[in-house]
């Protein structure tokens, strides 16, 4: 690669924990963050949980000179909370709202109101087209018994679909955000294997930060021990992922995280740790790249595809669990609704029969009558809304499962086309930046 | 193009009007449709308004031998109603649900429950990768005063975004469906100009069908005259659009529509007319294509970009109108909610004061008390739900407007980079199949 041109790119990602009036020291933390971003002048800043547009606008004003290009993605009732700031021109943006994102009646968890999504910004970095993605997946409130797991798996499925299908024309792809998934969690494996995205923490030549790259740590004063249980020290759930193209190789030279505090400040930027990755882009002539790619492609493709089929099958199973739960809930809602209706009829009958038959005065105590009628209407309305919501949830889960089944079938078909013996299938490593997705069409 | 290889592709599209028990002769029409599709063996069949999965499954069974590959897209409460049948293998599918799609409280219009979306299927046709899209946009119930216009414009905006961003890796793109927009409607112009998609009705060498390519006609026995007012003969709102790539040129050799009846049958397939387009794909070597493309690109790009800026500005204005209406509705909901709350407090005060002050018996008639309390609760609940829904609508409208503003800015920047004089800018026609989108990045 003697002719390769090299470009450096600093990418920053942080879940800002920006709930006005509820998150501790919210405005002070935004001020600290703004100062730091102004000083450090990263090329690309990816923020999550910027729940108030006012905070985005004040950051935008502060960073106008160093990050003249920015976009705030809007979704849901108070979201999406996603924002991008960039030194490089943003040509175009696009937002994909996940079809599943928790439940509105779980208001104390709030995820549904955030309208979780993945935002995309198309940047030009010199002559290169970069697709930058920022996302925030549904939180995990209880690892042992996580009712949101099927939703998060569907979100990861839709995220990989979105990235795979929208990045074909890009020279490089960067995804930053709070995935709310541990490195080896199903959704994370699905995302990385199907898109070919690489984890900057695993790829970096040099790392400075929390142990094991953790981004939610016990040492952070905003974190209570209970939040990270059963893990003592913390979790790694925030990521900067990247991949190149036949035209560009990407290397991660350095990566760092904050460590639960900020020097000369009384508290950290957020309850999450901030991530910074220093990427080096090496552009080269397509002909060089093509030959590199071909060299590798026939060597490990079968292994990748087989791995992806396994992961997808696992994901499908998880979606089926979600389907089962949603069906049960919808059945319960239907039954309760029918009982509410029966109760209403019964009440009306009890009230009407003596009145009609005997012409006597109403014997039913009025207070009880109205209270009971009110209760019946409340039951009917609640179960009706629940039924509608659960039907929509079922449709989305079924839709994801259908898509997974089709994709698995297609990949299995592809596998049948590979020669039987693949002795080096997963041993040889592709040249950096050329990690293809297992979905790449064969030619 | 002496070396060009030629492939023929028959594409069929129909809005099936498939509401079980409500649409007239629904099951008989599906049977007729299945027989015809089995006989005609189109390469790709794109259906809309297949509201029941059972109908999809019975079609799938009937067409198993001629269309072994199919997919049904699920969305919303009863939707999305979109289905694809194909002779060629479907490798992968993806669904984008529009962020705006009417109102749940407009239940008699039903669009919200359909979860309108655009479905994508990635097919391999020989060595070519084809991205096939099927969609159905929000209906237009009153052309003069259309309250859904901003929603449909945002749907058209999201549709063009989705197609543009997901089709970079495709050799050819086909979109079929019921756009619920006339040929010169804002959303239609936006879609065609930004994606470079071509209308098969306008491009076809030979046409056989209704006057002006109409697809909703007065001669169809399922159509009442009122539905198509103020147009006497009918409207053209269903389309098959296509575009090629540097590798493939597409020509439409023949196009036809049904004409309101089906020979030897008592009624037509649907209230919409069915469309069939015969496309010819000519693949050639990339080098040939590249030079063709370059030749054309510098010639008409500025004109295209300027046109797109105008259309987007128009779309932005329409979205702003929608924003204004949604804001007003949200304000009304808030005010009504506050009044409901005040009424409840007033009632409680009237009931409580004499009781507390005088220790006397309750003077408030019990029936009125409970009726009024019930009314207050109903007002509070309704306005609360409306407030939440309107806030989400506002977020989506604002999001679309932000994206449009950014895209317009970026295109204007691009325009500034063009040489001032562009005398031939819109006169010269590009070679078939090479219609680029005005968004194509400059290189």
From TrEMBL, chains A, B:
<keyword id="KW-0472">Membrane</keyword>
<feature type="transmembrane region" description="Helical">
    <location>
        <begin position="369"/>
        <end position="389"/>
    </location>
</feature>
<dbReference type="InterPro" id="IPR036691">
    <property type="entry name" value="Endo/exonu/phosph_ase_sf"/>
</dbReference>
<keyword id="KW-0378">Hydrolase</keyword>
<protein>
    <recommendedName>
        <fullName>Sphingomyelin phosphodiesterase 2</fullName>
        <ecNumber>3.1.4.12</ecNumber>
    </recommendedName>
</protein>
<keyword id="KW-0812">Transmembrane</keyword>
<keyword id="KW-0460">Magnesium</keyword>
<dbReference type="InterPro" id="IPR038772">
    <property type="entry name" value="Sph/SMPD2-like"/>
</dbReference>
<dbReference type="Pfam" id="PF03372">
    <property type="entry name" value="Exo_endo_phos"/>
</dbReference>
<dbReference type="GO" id="GO:0046872">
    <property type="term" value="F:metal ion binding"/>
</dbReference>
<comment type="pathway">
    <text>Sphingolipid metabolism.</text>
</comment>
<dbReference type="GO" id="GO:0016020">
    <property type="term" value="C:membrane"/>
</dbReference>
<dbReference type="GO" id="GO:0004767">
    <property type="term" value="F:sphingomyelin phosphodiesterase activity"/>
</dbReference>
<keyword id="KW-1133">Transmembrane helix</keyword>
<keyword id="KW-0443">Lipid metabolism</keyword>
<dbReference type="GO" id="GO:0006665">
    <property type="term" value="P:sphingolipid metabolic process"/>
</dbReference>
<feature type="transmembrane region" description="Helical">
    <location>
        <begin position="338"/>
        <end position="357"/>
    </location>
</feature>
<feature type="domain" description="Endonuclease/exonuclease/phosphatase">
    <location>
        <begin position="13"/>
        <end position="272"/>
    </location>
</feature>
<dbReference type="InterPro" id="IPR005135">
    <property type="entry name" value="Endo/exonuclease/phosphatase"/>
</dbReference>
<feature type="region of interest" description="Disordered">
    <location>
        <begin position="421"/>
        <end position="443"/>
    </location>
</feature>
<comment type="pathway">
    <text>Lipid metabolism; sphingolipid metabolism.</text>
</comment>
<keyword id="KW-0479">Metal-binding</keyword>
<comment type="similarity">
    <text>Belongs to the neutral sphingomyelinase family.</text>
</comment>
<keyword id="KW-0746">Sphingolipid metabolism</keyword>
């Amino acid at each position: 690669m003697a002719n390769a041109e090299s470009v450096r790119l600093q990418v920053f990602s942080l879940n800002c924990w920006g709930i006005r009036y509820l998150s501790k020291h919210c405005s002070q933390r935004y001020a600290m963050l703004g100062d730091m971003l102004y000083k450090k002048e990263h090329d690309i800043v990816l923020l999550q949980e910027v729940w108030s547009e006012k905070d985005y606008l004040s950051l935008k004003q502060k960073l106008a000179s160093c990050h003249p290009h920015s976009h705030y993605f809007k979704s849901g009732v108070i979201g999406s909370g996603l924002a991008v700031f960039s030194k490089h021109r943003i040509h175009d943006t696009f937002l994909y709202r996940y079809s599943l994102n928790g439940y509105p009646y779980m208001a104390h968890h709030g995820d549904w109101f955030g309208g979780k999504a993945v935002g995309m910004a198309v940047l030009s970095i010199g002559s290169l087209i970069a697709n930058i993605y920022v996302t925030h997946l549904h939180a995990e409130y209880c690892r042992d018994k996580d009712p949101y797991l099927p939703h998060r798996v569907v979100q990861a499925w839709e995220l990989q679909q979105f990235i795979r299908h929208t990045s074909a024309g890009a020279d490089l792809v960067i995804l930053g955000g709070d995935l709310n998934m541990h490195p080896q969690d199903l959704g994370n494996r699905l995302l990385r294997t199907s898109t070919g995205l690489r984890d900057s923490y695993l790829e970096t030549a040099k790392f400075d930060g929390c142990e094991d790259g953790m981004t939610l740590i016990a040492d952070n004063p905003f974190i209570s021990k209970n939040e990270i249980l059963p893990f003592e020290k913390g979790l790694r759930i925030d990521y900067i992922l990247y991949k190149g193209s036949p035209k560009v190789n990407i290397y991660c030279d350095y990566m760092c995280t904050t460590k639960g505090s900020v020097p000369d400040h009384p508290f950290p930027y957020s309850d999450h740790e901030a991530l910074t990755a220093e990427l080096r882009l090496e552009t080269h002539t397509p002909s060089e790249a093509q030959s590199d790619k071909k060299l590798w492609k026939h060597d490990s493709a079968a292994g990748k595809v087989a791995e992806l089929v396994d992961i997808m099958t696992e994901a499908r199973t998880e979606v089926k669990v979600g389907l089962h739960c949603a069906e049960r809930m919808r059945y319960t809602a239907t039954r309760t609704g029918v009982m509410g209706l029966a109760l209403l009829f019964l009440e009306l009958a009890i009230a009407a029969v003596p009145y009609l038959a005997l012409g006597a005065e109403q014997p039913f105590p009025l207070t009880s009558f109205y209270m009971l009628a009110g209760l019946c209407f409340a039951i009917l309305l609640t179960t009706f809304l629940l039924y509608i919501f659960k039907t929509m949830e079922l449709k989305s889960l079924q839709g994801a499962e259908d898509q997974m089944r089709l994709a698995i079938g297609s990949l299995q078909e592809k596998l049948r086309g590979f020669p039987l013996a693949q002795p080096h299938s997963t041993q040889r490593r592709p040249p950096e930046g050329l990690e293809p997705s297992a979905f790449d069409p064969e030619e």
